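Title: Prediction job returns without error message
Component: structure pipeline
Severity: low
Priority: P3
Assignee: unassigned

Description:
Job completed but the reporter wants confirmation the result is attached to the right record. Sequence as submitted:
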Amino acid sequence: MSDVTTTDLYEVTMALSYLHEDMSGSATFSLFVRDLPAERGFLVSAGTEPALEYLSAFRITSADVGDFASALHRPYADVAGLCGITFTGEVRAVPEGRVMFAGEPLLEVTAPLAQAQLVETFLLNQVSHQTAVASKAVRSVLAASGRPVVDFSLRRTHGTSAGMQAARTTALTGFAGTSNVAAAVRWGLPASGTMAHSYVEAFPDEEAAFRAFARAHPGPVTFLVDTYDAVRGVRTAARVLRDLRRGPGCAVRLDSGDLGALARRARAELDSAGLPEVRVVASGGLDEYGVDSLVRSGAPIDVYAVGTRVGTSADAPYLDSAYKLVEYDGRPVMKLSSAKVTSPGRKQVFRRPDGDDVIALSDEPGPAGAEPLLRTVMSDGRRLFPPDTLPEGQARLTADLEDLPADTLLIRDPRPGRAVFSERLSELTSDLSRHLRSD
């Protein structure tokens, strides 16, 4: 089963009809997020690179056609016209790591109509999920105020593919590592992990467990100290580390209870044992809200490990994203459905040094001093640049965050950033809307 068939059935039925009607004109589809989720002041663009990989390799094979025919309960010959279709179009996209707002195109696809339609589902899936996770994850980085944050989400993400995407997108937003070994190897990320409560339970007592773990791992170790009693566990860990002279780089991890209070007790115990260099790691149901509360309380926590809530973007697990036709065969088009009105025409997004972003038509020059965010990354079905690296995306995000107003960066009750239409786009939208409503 190929990625080509990882699509909604109606993409196939529409493409077949387009071919039957000889509708092969150039179509532009715009992918954007209608509204920001609650408690989000901005989005972080992500998923573009996997989307471009997919488009570069897109080719409908005979086996794919057979699968389509099976799903449609029709003879192979009825859908054979799809065989051999490749993606030959153009893509204009916002690079990964850019801060974006509601209504702004994250990417636009211009290709023969059937091609542009067939890739809709996969593109929406990749960009929507990864942008949602990235937009959640960056908030944990902001909340941690310079302390390292690590991804522990794999075991509860919605499938292993989602876990790989979570590790990648959290790295994009500045996470210091991931527990996901496959992701660490694939993208060159620091791998991070300690031990489970089951490991401690398998030994007669905590001290035996800690000493056995240290024997197996001669470098810095992290002991999970709250299997039975956290304070006693910290004392045991301190004794073992002091006996083995293994303080530098080592840590104790707290995974439950009142993390702020326990971190203070742990820090005091470690300091009194002459181990000020041993760090305190906190985990256990954390996301940006928990991290923010702990940091604001002054809890002496050195590293935050976040998992389920961030990897699934638990408080906003989806984006109200759309992939809408905005131009066909040179004719601007729009949707007028209630609460889902779209704007016509190919777009550009301009970022002004001071003031709201401007969504304009693609052939507009833009405001003086403004930066265009969409760039052409594919032409004639071929990529124009080498794939972006995660450090490049991180650098973009860092720069964009520095330019955001402080109230847009707030973890609680942020003021969402916004974009406004250019005068020409507003006029086109108004004129076309009146024309369509009068028909």
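Comment from assignee: result matches the submitted record. The chain has two domains: 3-133+318-438, 144-311.
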